[in-house]
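Hi U.,

Before I forget, here's the chain from the pilot set. I'm dumping it here mostly so it's searchable later in email.
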Amino acid sequence: MEAPKAAAPPAPLPRLVVIDEERGDAAEFRRLFVGKIEVVDAADFPAGLALVAREPGAVVLLDVSLPGPDGMSLAQYLEAYQPELARRLIVTTGGAGLRIAFRFRFLHGCPFLPKPIDPDELKREVLRLHPAALALAAADPARAAPVPPST
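Structure:
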C-alpha cells in the first residue's frame, strides 16, 4: 500500500505594499483581505523604498502626496531602477495631490484609486496586476480574492 502523497504547499498570497502616511487604510485592507492578499505597509519615502526593495514581486499602492520626499519621487525612482515593479504601481491620493495623480496616470498608465479607496476596486487591481494572484485564482479559487465585475 502506498503512503499518501503530501499535499503541495499552498501558493503564496499576492502581496500588496501600501505606502501612505495614513496607516489606517493599510490596517483596514489587512483585515479585509486576510487569507487572500498579504498587506505590508510603510509610512514614508525611506521606509517605502526599503520595503519595495524586499518585495520585488508585490503590487504597490502609493499615495503620491507623501510628506518629505513625495510619492511622485518614489514612483520616478521605481520607474528608473525597478521598472518591472513600476508596472505594478497603483497611485492614490485624497485631495491636494489629485492633479499629480492624474498626471502620473496619464503619463505612465498607472491605475488611480481616489481616497477613500473602495476595497473591491483595490482587490480587482491587485489581481489584475499581480501574476501570483492570477495563478492562485486558477489553482485554488476558494483562496482567491473575489473579483467583482468591472463597471
